[in-house]
Amino acid sequence: MARVLVTEPVDESGLAVLAEEHEVVRRPGCSPAELLELIPGFEALIVRSATQVTADVLRAGRRLQVVGRAGVGVNNIDVETATERGIVVVNVPDGNTMAATEQTFALLLALARRIPDAVASLRAGHWEREAFVGTELRGKTIGIVGLGRIGQEVARRAHAFGMGVCGYDPLLSPERAEEMGIHFLPLREVLRAADVLTVHTPLTESTRGLIGAAEFALMKPEALVLNCARGGIIDERALHEALATGRVAGAGIDVFAHEPAVDNPLVHLPNVVATPHLGASTREAQSTSAELVARYVRSVLAGEPVATAVNLPGLSPRDWDVVRHLVPLGELLGRLYMQGLGGQLGQVDILSAPLPGRGGEWVTAAVLKGCLADAVDDVVNLVNAQRLAVEHGVKVVFSQSSEVPERSLTLRVHAGAGPRVVAGHALADGSLRVTNLDGMPIEMAPMRYMLVTRHQDRPGLIGAVGTLLGESGVNIAAMLVGRRSVRGDAVMVLAVDDPISPGALERLRTVPGMARVRAVVLPEALAGGSGEAAGS
Known about the structure:
Elements: E1 3-6, H1 12-19, E2 23-26, H2 32-38, E3 44-47, H3 55-60, E4 66-69, H4 79-84, E5 88-90, H5 97-112, H6 115-123, E6 141-145, H7 149-160, E7 164-168, H8 174-179, E8 183-184, H9 187-193, E9 196-199, H10 213-216, E10 224-227, H11 236-244, E11 250-253, E12 272-274, H12 283-301, H13 317-323, H14 326-341, E13 347-352, H15 359-372, H16 385-391, E14 395-400, E15 408-415, E16 418-426, E17 432-437, E18 440-444, E19 449-456, H17 461-471, E20 476-483, E21 489-496, H18 502-508, E22 514-521, E23 533-534
Parallel strand pairs: 1-2, 1-3, 3-4, 4-5, 6-7, 6-9, 7-8, 9-10, 10-11, 11-12, 13-14
Antiparallel strand pairs: 13-15, 15-16, 16-17, 17-18, 18-23, 19-21, 19-22, 20-21
Helix pairs in contact: 1-12, 5-7, 13-15, 14-15, 15-16
């Protein structure tokens, strides 16, 4: 059972998922000093946007394995330090997509139809229809900067309003944009064409101040500007100047560079509709984000990969479906090599069938996690495995071939006397099989406790091994022997129900013809076998 610290209000429906298996401690509103004092006692931290997860916090979290953000961005988390320390950072990129999309249109309609001013006037006892003449969206052009999940949803709804849609995104291909009915243009041309400009990019060093005075100078004076993404993408001083001088007509703002923004001069301009960071503030978004971040945190604590982890290579859902079974397989083969063959680590060659996107990086990290988990003092995971490999002088060569069967991997480790081979396969249901061990063809489902021997194929050896294990109280669940020739070198793998003591291993090494005996203990997540084995 791990301890999970939650420092901000998070929907209880999500936390209930975690509380079934772990201790969840709620400390909403805890100060930075309190967080530094508390964090050493926790394996997981869940935050929203207010908690600053600094380098000091991450370094103080000696047991910390995962930081979960119940929202989209991670600008309040020092991801670089987390990565250095092997701490997985997860967020919920899809949790508030619809909420942020609808907030964008809520601000746009409020701005275009002057809703807040009209409401205030009516509540003051006035009936001023002529004072609040608005503008229609139909026939206008919306320019979308950032065509990710939210930007694409905004485009779909803009089409429903009868708007023309143009957009810019450095990562999206023009062909894909055109498929969605978005006229793909350079940023400067989007600015010139837009009657409404809305930004939906992450806040990075390259997007900070992306829309400033020079950009406003390119826009129509009747244009409206929206930001429901991140404060800082739009230069607030430049926006204030553009609004105050009539360079642009109005702005709808939900996010600010510094929050709370009660003293921000933008919120007091008459042509601004501002809200206090409400983009994700719907019951549905809060519930979805809480449930997803809880699920991701639980997976990390269980040693399982999370495809949406921020500091791991990004994969689309379709690509992840191809790669996901190879991640546990890679870790399994790495552990089998280190524990079962007992070799050194020099160069690790990984051979796979062709993988989509950055799938090879996931597989490489998984193999290295398996190789290093029992060889270094650090806690090893998919985040820090490659860094630790570099620090320990391990070279990795990943290659792909169409001749390799799907969902199969082969490791060839060059160290000592020569290359050592371990290979395996993942079945369609995700269960794993070992297909080659130390160059010998076998086929066996991994179990938590196994015995791996290298020996001379000779009468009586297998019986002697079974007798010694029986005398040590170890029950054999399955056995498999691989050999290349009669009375030649052979490999034996025994799946057993019980741990094998050091004393039993020493006695097994005295059996005539025995060259090597190694005990293997796998994490339960990798030990999916039930004892079935088939020889070849």
